[in-house]
Known about the structure:
Keywords: Oxidoreductase. It comes from Pseudobdellovibrio exovorus JSS. InterPro entries: FAD-dep_OxRdtase, FAD/NAD-bd_sf. One of its GO terms (molecular function) is oxidoreductase activity. By secondary structure, this protein is α/β, with parallel strands linked by helices. It folds into 2 domains: 166 residues, FAD/NAD(P)-binding domain (3-Layer(bba) Sandwich); 186 residues, D-Amino Acid Oxidase, Chain A, domain 2 (2-Layer Sandwich). The chain has 10 helices and 19 strands. Helix 1 runs parallel beside helix 7. The radius of gyration is 21 Å and the shape is globular. It starts with 10 loop residues before the first strand and ends in a 17-residue tail after the last helix. The mean pLDDT is 93. The structure holds flavin-adenine dinucleotide. The site of flavin-adenine dinucleotide (FAD) has 41 residues, from helix 1, strand 13 and strand 17. Flavin-adenine dinucleotide binds next to helix 1, strand 13 and strand 17.
Amino acid sequence: MAANEVSNLKADVLIVGAGVIGLACAYELSRAGAKVVVIDKFEPGYGCSYGNAGWITPCFAMPLPMPGMLLKSFKWLLDPESPLYIKPELNPTLISWLLSFMASMTQKKMLSSVDALTQISVQSLKLYQELAAKTDKSFSFEQKGLLMVAQSHDGLKYARQEMELVSRNGIPGKLMMEDETRAFEPSLTKRIKGSVFFSQEAHAEPLQVTQTLAHEAQKLGAVILPKTEVIDFQLSPKGIASARTTRGIFEADQFVLATGAWSHHLGQTLKLKIPVLGGKGYAIITDPLEVNPQRPMMLVEKKVAVTPRNGTLRLAGTLELVNQDETFTTRRVEAIVRGAREFMNVPETIRYHEIWRGLRPCTPDGVPVIGRTARYPNLLLATGHQMLGLQSATGTGKLIADLALGKTPDIDPKPFRADRF
Length: 421
Ligand SMILES: Cc1cc2nc3c(=O)[nH]c(=O)nc-3n(C[C@H](O)[C@H](O)[C@H](O)COP(=O)(O)OP(=O)(O)OC[C@H]3O[C@@H](n4cnc5c(N)ncnc54)[C@H](O)[C@@H]3O)c2cc1C
């Protein structure tokens, strides 16, 4: 579409970013009757939302900063294959992010974050169930549960603690020892101590999720424009008047920034401090195993996520706090496959169909930023969803729609406030 056609597209709400978050906002706003335009600098769904593990698992409603993590992170810094890596840099943004991250590693903060993340994840799962029923599971939605498998005493203790933590919010889990675990999941052929099974968890194909949300939003009148990059914004006494893009000026009554790991950069054009740092992770799609897993699994000690797909297998993992560095570190990619090999029979010659990396948008307190900004009354933020963006997207979309349209939200919006930093 040519730039001079843009003036016809004045929206009630302009959403910047067509990842799973922006598209879930578009869907919910359109359902509520708003005229929505979504713009993205790439094709919709090809940012971090493209190749993630596909888990919709409220049992993993954990913030990134956890008590006791500081010591562990220092240990991991010395290990080039560790699941967490922080790129050392004398950069004021990174230093201030890390200080805020460390300040969030308290028991009290962790418990309140778990409560907020569980709430939005449970609501999201419900909305995904409705969407799956409506679209005949067009996004490969399956509810087969999630198995957390441990090889060591400490690993099993960790899985058990997680089970106890989320059971406070009504998420059931079942502890199984070695024999029961093996009978339950025959792909686990190597040394196992035990597992915890969360029966209500779901998974889906991430690109199909964004495509379904886009399609459903478009059916309700939303306009989605790819290859349209926001450069900056023009202001008015009301807040933001328009977004200046590579394809013209877009006006709207309200604006939603759903720009994932790019949010800090775009926020700077508005003199907003959005403390979102890119946390790189990798996913590898391989041939299926001879005995392919029957359900998604978290391999606790290696922090590797295993997701069975139709005819292939996805292995995902690592979190490198690197901000905008999108380079591949082959050693870390291989460490994911080696980690899986310690639990299952993964042949040395296994064929890779795809290697992908994505930048998770990470806030220092591990809770997304969802809400209206104090500085610009007509600007809402929907970003910083760290490792949980897919599983909390539909709840985020609903919350943004409620806030934008002046309705009372279904969940408490306070923990997600945009002006808390
Ligand atoms: C290896 C890995 C595994 C993961 N597994 C899971 C999982 O199993 N479950 C789960 O819930 N989460 C998972 N995640 C996290 C999840 O992928 C993210 O939280 C989620 O994709 C974030 O979505 P988003 O829409 O905020 O960001 P993105 O998908 O990155 O979308 C942001 C969009 O904004 C656009 N944009 C940026 N700047 C501009 C601009 N100036 N103008 C126009 N457009 C712009 C970008 O092009 C992009 O499309 C995983 C992540 C990784 C890396």
